[in-house]
Structure formats: structure tokens, C-alpha cells
Amino acid sequence: MRPFLATLLAAVSVGATAFGVGWVVQAEALPQPQPSALVAARAAQWLYRYRLAVSTFSIGAGRPVHATCVQTWFPTSAGGSDRGTVLRMGGGSSVIRVLPHDLDVLGRSRGQRALLTRAQLALAGCPRLLAAKIAAAAQSAGGVSVSLGRAMGQGPLLLRVPMGNRLLLIVHLAEHTGKPIGLSFTDRRLYGHSVISLERVTQHLLSTRGLG
What is the enclosing helix (H) or strand (E) of 186? Predict the structure, then answer.
């Protein structure tokens, strides 16, 4: 985990855990995190607890797509294994595999535009990928910003995460817990939104989602 994010996560937890005199001295020497950075840290903290997200997303005028994204292990050419991410959509008709150093799009959408693949991955709420994006944005010059919004029958916090090239990802956070519950994606050429649910990985869930 990146040092900056680790500092923010510690700041979020300080009210519940006593770290002793050493932590107090360190905290006094560090600059006070901005409120938006603390919100980003809490969102990333939620995401780092999970390896699987279930979502329903729509891009443009397209039909809603049900998707499951899970971080798993892939075999390497050296005979070992390395972490990667699998996103399965639409009953298995399309699969995106994010390998350690590569990206595969399998199924009917193999020749699709890179921007569409990027939008699908963003809106699916893949926990570890999304946490990394939030952490990177929180450390960038533009940073992240937070506002109140109305969506999904709730009054969530809206965490705006710039992703470069005029692309903006908005993470919808539950009002009282800061847990990610949805996403919006805007670009000059594409827009979309999703509802996400972070789930614990079980063999039953993986098998029912075609990921067993």
C-alpha cells in the first residue's frame, strides 16, 4: 500500500484505536490531511477489504449489464502464479482479464475500443483496481473532491476522481459509512453509471457467476 494512503488510513482509524506516544509524535509532525483526502482514504479502506464486486451498469444508451469482478491468481510461464483481475459480464458473453502486465478481452467484445473496456472496468467497481485509482488520484496535483448528491434513493457523498484526459470517475459513497455503493463515468465520448455491491468471495458465489 502506498505511503500516502497508509497515512490517510491511519488518520481515519485514529479515533477508534490508540497508537501510543510514538503515533502521537508522528501525527503532530505530519500535515493535516484534507477532508476530501480522508473521504478518499475511507473509500479505499472499504475496497481493500474485498476482492469481489457485483454490479449492474449501463454505458450510454446501452442495456443494463450485470457483471462480477474478482481479483484472483493466474499461472505464469515460469510455473508460478501472479495476481490479476477477471471481469465477467452478461452471463459470460464477454470477459476482461487484467493480467499483471497485460489486458485481454475475450468473447464477443474482443475488438472493442480501449475506452469502452476502460469504462466497463471502472463501472464494474473491481475493488482493488478502484482502490488503486482512488489512491493515485488522492496523491496527484489535481487531487480528489467531495460533494453531497442525491442518487439511488439516498443522500450519498460524491467522491470525484480525475483519471486524466478529461475523464472523470465519480464514486457514490453511503452517507454514514463512506462505503462505495455506485459509480458514474464521464468522458467526452462516453458516459455511464452503475450500482455496486462489495461481496465476500465464496466458492458458491464464484460458481453461480461463472467464475468457479
Answer: strand 180-186
Which position has the grid cell 454505458?
Answer: 59
**Tell me, what amino acid is at 45?**
Q
Who has greater pLDDT, 114 or 193? 193
Do residue 28 and residue 118 come from a single domain? no
Residue 40 covered by a domain: no
pTM: 0.74
The reported pLDDT for the residue numbered 194 is 95
Sheet holding 81-89, edge to edge: 102-107, 94-99, 81-89, 65-75, 52-59, 191-199, 180-186, 168-173, 157-162, 145-148
Task: Name the domain count of the chain.
Answer: 2
The C-alpha cell at 168 is 472523470
- 149 Cβ contact partners less than 8 Å away, ≥ 6 residues apart: 155, 156, 157, 158, 172
Q: Looking at residue 153, which CATH number applies to its domain?
A: 2.50.20
